[in-house]
Specification:
102 residues, mainly beta, Thrombin, subunit H, 6-stranded antiparallel β-barrel, 42% strand
Length: 102
């Protein structure tokens, strides 16, 4: 009996459920002690590239400079995952995450 291929993307989550527009980034960050890069961000979440093993549903802290942002891994594909922030970011924190001038 054939089974459906497994996916790191939750089957219950639609492909596009973002509630806020994304801003491109390239900011260097950390997940724990692992290097990471923020690919894009919004006040509600961001897409992160890292070699760290991240499990969907895990509570994580993304660190950019001296700014720590908590959230949950919403999805994972390859070396990327989506971080759903525990609380929406203010404008200054979002600027730090996207590398935009404050």
């Amino acid at each position: 009996m054939a089974t459906a291929p497994s996916s790191t993307y939750p089957s219950w989550l639609a492909r596009e459920e973002r509630l806020a527009g994304r801003e491109p980034s390239g900011v260097v960050a950390r997940i724990g002690e692992q290097a990471a890069a923020v690919a894009d961000a919004s006040p509600l979440g961001c897409r992160v590239r890292t070699e760290a093993r991240v499990n969907v549903g895990a509570f994580l802290t993304l660190t950019v400079g001296d700014v720590a942002i908590d959230g949950w891994a919403a999805w994972r594909r390859g070396d990327e995952f989506g971080l759903d922030f525990a609380k929406p970011l203010d404008a200054a924190t979002l600027a730090a995450l996207t590398g935009a001038p404050r």
